[in-house]
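# nightly structure sweep
# worker-07 picked up a monomer target from the shared queue
# config: single-sequence mode, recycle default, output format = structure tokens
# input follows
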Amino acid sequence: MRAANAAVQEKGISMPFTLRQHKVSCHPAEYNQPMSDMYDTLSEDYDRFVNWEQRLKVELPFLLRHLPRGRVLDAACGTGWHAIALARNGYATAGADLSAEMIALARRNAQAADLALPFETAGFGELARAFAPHLPFDGVICLGNSLPHLLTPQDLTRALEDFAACLRPGGTLILQNRNFDAVLARGERWMEPQSARRGRNEWLYLRFYDFLPDGLIRFNMVTLTREKTGWKQRVTATLLRPLRMAELVEAVLQSGFDSVQTCGSMEAGGTPFDPQTSGNSIVVARRA
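# output follows
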């Protein structure tokens, strides 16, 4: 906990309370929200939390390099910025997310960018049905550590088969998750704090994992907001199933894809995957 508090102090923000180590039970109901509920709650903060200018500077060249020209579906689009960036580069894009609030923001962001893009509230396994009038796509992307929200191997297979159903033969699938090989090997709980400031208001976002006895991970986010009346805090949490690269590649190959390439980051067009040091687990696959 000391390291997290020190990181906060380096940013010039005083902590309104101390985060303490605590024992965790498997996953008490009052502390775990359904995935859509968590991201509905986070939607108002999401575009403050993510530095989209920096993120797209790294990720967009990788996507442009690996995606075929044509129609692309973002399967976990959040507030829509990958779909918007690709549309600005000549792609016909669409987006889906399980969170209705995220989709509402995606539509507003696209409208502000003078783009008319189809965004639909739909989860993994529902995409081919939701986007039936737009099928097939030339590319499907699923970024931002979205697949680990699927808590069983069966759910993962169902999602990958749904991606395949959305693609034309030879179409491209791009997946991006955290490198859980490294996270699990090091017991890496804390992620780097993120902060934002708008006038007199400040936001601080702290993210950490609880490793649960059944092999799942509880993903926690503490949001600290300083307004005129002082600091407010909110804690949201949901469950993840940590996906190792070997399991992900095998599942992709068994779900209608071939020609699999792995990367450890999107920088410089894609760096090699190292299970010990890479930040991400990235898979680029072709539908058979």
